[in-house]
């Protein structure tokens, strides 16, 4: 292939490292220096829209769940997310002024294309978010947003996920500003906050990779993992579990931390490590106390958490430290240690990280 590994052992690791640059470039493309949004959506795509339905598969579906959180919490736009393979055969009742967004890195996922075609037939405005504007989704959607992450070779999506998240931040800003549901102070704060993230992402990569590589060794023979998160980091728990499943073949479940007591807690013992995403904000104490419940069942606890909080140190056996930022931005940072964890566990197991068994980069059959 034309894309080189540039000294990285696998494309996936290289792509993980490209994320701060992808984020920076995406910001430069879609927010001008004087803070104007430049998504370039056709007229009527935002103004008259009253609700959003997002359809996607896999990692793109996880990005969409974060997107729902952002569209609802930043812009106040009611949003639903459905797997494309489900939407196809049970679409929600058709309502006017709905924007349907198909999110697909490859632009070729058969279920996502079919679901979007159905939405179009129903008369909805259709937007695509993709890393391949020249792909089939570009033909089906009324407009597309280019995630501009550059070609991704690793089957497990990393930098395209980060790029999809960025598009949702900008789209939520666009909705909030256009519909007047977002104050100009808050929108300025959000734009400034986005611009600070690449430096934090770099710091996480620089400071944690060695540690995570070392920590991962002890999980080479682990059979099950649980990932917990709440609120905006629940989808990141799902994504952390998916990354691990995809490339290490270790069974992993992502769960909303508050639901653990309704089932998964029965799985816990000293052989089932728990990774909890605990970042300061609306659910921080709750996640810490959910983690404490896991600890009481002898589970080994890994926290994606702030470095300097004694409360977190008390609960977690290991901390993958995250700089403290406005909770709304935390997914951009919390996903990185989880990608590294999945990568290093798989690499220690000697697996073909870039080409995991049974998986394809794009699934063009139903
Ligand atoms: C495949 C890939 C996943 C990806 C999913 C959706 O299953 O292995 O990594 O998340 O397809 O792909 P898309 O191109 O639609 O984002």
Counting DSSP H or I runs of 4 or more residues, the number of helices is 12
Instruction: Please compute the radius of gyration using only Cα atoms.
Output: 20 Å
What fraction, in percent, of the residue positions are helical? 40-55%
The side-by-side strand order for the widest beta sheet comes to 2-1-3-4-5
Report the biggest beta sheet as strand number plus sense, adding barrel if it closes. Answer: 5 strands, parallel
Shape: globular
Keywords: Aminotransferase, Cytoplasm, Glutamine amidotransferase, Repeat, Transferase
Enzyme class: transferase
Subcellular location: Cytoplasm
Domain SIS: 41-181, 211-356
In short:
With about 375 residues, the chain is of the alpha/beta class.
Structure description:
- The protein is an alpha/beta fold and 366 residues long.
- Helix 8 packs parallel to helix 12.
- The chain is built from twelve helices and ten strands.
- The strands form two sheets. A five-stranded parallel beta sheet has the order 2-1-3-4-5, with helices on both faces. A five-stranded parallel beta sheet has the order 7-6-8-9-10, sandwiched between helices.
- Bound molecules: 6-O-phosphono-alpha-D-glucopyranose.
- 6-O-phosphono-alpha-D-glucopyranose binds next to helix 3.
Task: Supply the key terms.
5-stranded parallel β-sheet, alpha/beta, globular, single chain, 366 residues, binds 6-O-phosphono-alpha-D-glucopyranose, 10 strands
